[in-house]
Specification:
This protein has 9 helices and 9 strands. It is an alpha/beta fold. The chain has a single domain, classed as 3-Layer(aba) Sandwich (Rossmann fold), CATH 3.40.50.
Length: 244
């Protein structure tokens, strides 16, 4: 007798993989990605009372990864309002294990206050400083001591040069089987004027940094199954799995 649970999982795997060649579905997703980013769609949501500047689809993808990996430590560059820190911390709270470290060059006082007063703050620590400075990377590396499962999320300055420095600085901290997630790779697929006044654009963004990084680093691969699963995402090609 077939196992219905395994059968369901296998059907899902095959469906996700088929999305990669579903031209109509991918075109619809691309159209929504462009229109929604221009409309600042990701600014519409909150998690446990704090703004979380993420797409719900990426949040679900991160939830699945965190549940499967059960990391000892999640490192995130870019804090903003703290919604992502609280999101990750709440998932770790449900699991009953792990902590989150947030890094930002400018943790604004009103945001710091709200984060520190939040019930999930017991699993959060924050570090103010440039994510690419040697001193910051040293401090973060010290905090990984004794941690076996480490995940890293990059979501700060989105220029090619900055993200490449982050990739080179934080990739060594990611444990085998875990993920280095690079957000806002979608910039490479958007019109240059999608949001005026940004320092990043087509040809100068997280996606171009990922491409350069992967040319020199065979420890990581793009998890295309995640791309084919969620379709609508700010991180296409940005879910990097450490394989060795």
């Amino acid at each position: 007798m077939s196992n219905p649970i395994l059968q369901f999982i296998e059907e899902r795997i095959q469906r996700i993989r088929s999305n990669g060649s579903n031209k109509a579905l991918k075109a619809a997703a691309d159209s929504f990605n462009t229109a929604s980013n221009t409309a600042q769609y990701s600014y519409n949501f909150s998690w446990m009372g704090r703004p979380i500047i993420q797409y719900p689809q990426d949040m679900i993808a991160m939830q699945e990864l965190i549940w499967d990996i059960k990391p000892d430590l999640i490192i995130e560059t870019g804090i903003a309002h703290g919604g992502s820190l609280i999101f990750y911390a709440s998932l770790l709270e449900l699991i009953g294990h792990g902590e989150v470290l947030g890094i930002d060059i400018d943790i604004r006082e009103h945001n710091r206050k709200e984060i520190e007063q939040h019930p999930m703050f017991r699993r959060i620590s924050m570090l103010q400083g440039s994510s690419v400075s040697p001193d910051t990377i040293r401090q973060v590396t010290e905090k990984t001591a004794g941690k076996q499962k480490i995940m890293v999320c990059l979501d700060s300055n989105h220029t090619h040069a900055h993200v490449l420095q982050e990739l080179e600085g934080y990739a060594p901290l990611v444990s085998k089987g875990s993920y280095l997630v690079v957000f806002d790779t979608i910039v490479e697929h958007l019109p240059d004027d999608y949001l005026p006044g940004r320092a990043w654009s087509k040809g100068d963004n997280p996606k171009t940094a990922v491409r350069e990084f992967l040319k020199k680093n065979s420890d990581f691969v793009v998890d295309t199954d995640i791309d084919n699963k969620i379709l609508v995402s700010v991180a296409p090609g940005g879910y990097l799995k450490r394989i060795k």
